[in-house]
């Protein structure tokens, strides 16, 4: 697509938000970065422009304005903050793609804070009934964005959602970030994806992968 | 505060114009609202670039936009302007899913209400009043197109300009003269001569 898509990244100063912003800045996107602390997102925007003067990244004070301008919204805040963010952007997120990257982990990283029959993505969809919620980027660590090819192999990144056109758009985003997009299924698959990342975190701690690890599906 | 106000009025003009064409019940209004996309566009940003498929009809709540084509010599030809209360799109591309031949960009910061193709199809299936609305909308667009074609083919430069400023007084005020010249198929120099002649006569 030639027309530049605008992406609002809420929580752009965090580990994931900054990593996603930096890697999407390579694509044909205009990035609006927001979080609680404007100075921190401004630093991320400055860094993006410094490394890539052609990129379009701007710190924006208000997640409502950014989401109103955006075609795509990425919620990169901790799971616990998602309800508050969703309530703020509900009106302006109408019919837009909202990407859920959250893994609803407990404080000790050995379980989830969510019931077994749901997921952070499905909870976000309930909070934003008229948005097209898509699960993506939850099975990749923040460090993977700088190195999407690990040990000579490109990491896969799973995507789940109910709207075919939105899945296609998000697949393009995942490719731009350097990962191999794998559409896993409907939004209800998100629970599996979130639990897969819980496993990867536990393996990371057990075997000391240094947070540089990912999933790859081997197939014929 | 300012923002809360504009959020509350995000769809105000859209429904005002819709109700003028086809009156809606509050329930129908809510049903439609669920499928609309609110979108802000800043000055000089594109809503659509030639070659992409036009995914939505844009209704202007605030601001001004234009649709234009670019010829082999990179000259821009303005096809349509849109200000508050108007809609703008590449209808050909929107209805056929063929690549767009128009570019659409914002002449001023704008607040839009988008009807995407999937919303359009949803409405056509479940809301007969929308069919009336869209028929009136397309009829209006057709009439405007025909009027403009006839005017460019048969009227003198001065008559064209007078007719434009009479039909669209608000646009004539807000849009740069060279774009109005382009819209009328005149060079900026010709338009400037015509305006001077008209002013001298007064
Ligand atoms: N880290 C990973 O490798 C990884 C991998 C996959 C998925 N995830 C998921 O990604 C999400 C973010 O994780 P993270 O590690 O990047 O966390 P983080 O470093 O703590 O970043 C959180 C970001 O959210 C912002 N934020 C917090 N509350 C907010 C609110 N109410 N409104 C607006 N912004 C708010 C913070 O901005 P302020 O500092 O200004 O408050 C910060 O920019 C989590 O849901 C996590 O499960 C993380």
UniProtKB/TrEMBL annotation, chain A:
Residue ranges the record marks as coiled coil: none
GO molecular function per UniProt: oxidoreductase activity
Keyword Oxidoreductase (UniProt): yes
Domain annotation Pyrroline-5-carboxylate reductase catalytic N-terminal: ranges: 6-104
Keyword Chloroplast: no
Any Pfam family: F420_oxidored
Keyword vocabulary terms for this entry: Oxidoreductase
Name of this chain's protein: NAD(P)-binding domain-containing protein
């Amino acid at each position: 697509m030639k027309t530049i898509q605008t992406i609002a990244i809420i929580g752009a100063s965090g580990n994931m938000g900054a990593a996603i912003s930096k890697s999407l800045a390579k694509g044909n996107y205009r990035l609006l970065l927001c979080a609680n602390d404007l100075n921190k997102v401004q630093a991320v925007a400055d860094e993006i422009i410094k490394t890539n003067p052609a990129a379009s990244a701007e710190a924006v004070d208000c997640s409502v304005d950014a989401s109103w301008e955006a075609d795509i919204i990425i919620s990169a805040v901790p799971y616990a903050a998602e309800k508050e963010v969703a309530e703020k952007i509900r009106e302006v997120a109408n019919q837009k793609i909202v990407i859920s990257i959250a893994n609803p982990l407990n404080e000790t990283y050995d379980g989830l804070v969510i019931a077994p029959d749901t997921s952070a993505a499905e909870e976000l969809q309930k909070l934003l009934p008229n948005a097209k919620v898509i699960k993506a980027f939850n099975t990749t660590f923040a460090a993977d964005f700088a190195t999407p090819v690990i040990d000579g192999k490109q990491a896969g990144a799973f995507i789940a959602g109910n709207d075919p056109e939105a899945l296609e758009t998000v697949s393009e985003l995942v490719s731009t970030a350097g990962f191999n997009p794998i559409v896993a299924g409907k939004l209800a698959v998100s629970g599996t994806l979130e639990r897969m990342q819980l496993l990867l975190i536990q393996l990371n701690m057990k075997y000391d992968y240094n947070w540089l690890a990912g999933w790859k599906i081997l197939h014929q | 505060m300012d923002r809360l106000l504009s959020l509350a009025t995000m769809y105000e003009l859209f429904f005002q114009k819709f109700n003028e064409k086809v009156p809606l019940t509050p329930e129908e209004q809510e049903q439609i609202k669920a499928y609309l996309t609110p979108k802000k566009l800043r000055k000089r940003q594109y809503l659509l670039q030639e070659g992409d498929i036009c995914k939505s009809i844009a209704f202007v709540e605030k601001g001004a936009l234009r649709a234009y084509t670019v010829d082999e010599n990179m000259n821009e030809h303005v096809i349509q302007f849109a200000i508050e209360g108007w809609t703008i799109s590449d209808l050909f591309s929107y209805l056929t899913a063929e690549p767009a031949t128009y570019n659409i960009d914002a002449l001023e910061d704008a607040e839009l209400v988008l009807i995407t193709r999937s919303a359009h199809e949803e409405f056509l299936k479940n809301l007969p009043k929308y069919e009336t609305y869209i028929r009136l909308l397309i009829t209006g667009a057709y009439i405007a197109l025909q009027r403009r074609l006839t005017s460019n083919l048969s009227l003198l430069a001065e008559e064209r300009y007078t007719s434009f400023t009479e039909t669209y007084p608000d646009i004539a005020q807000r849009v740069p003269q060279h774009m109005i010249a382009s819209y009328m198929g005149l060079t900026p120099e010709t338009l400037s001569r015509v305006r001077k002649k008209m002013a001298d006569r007064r």
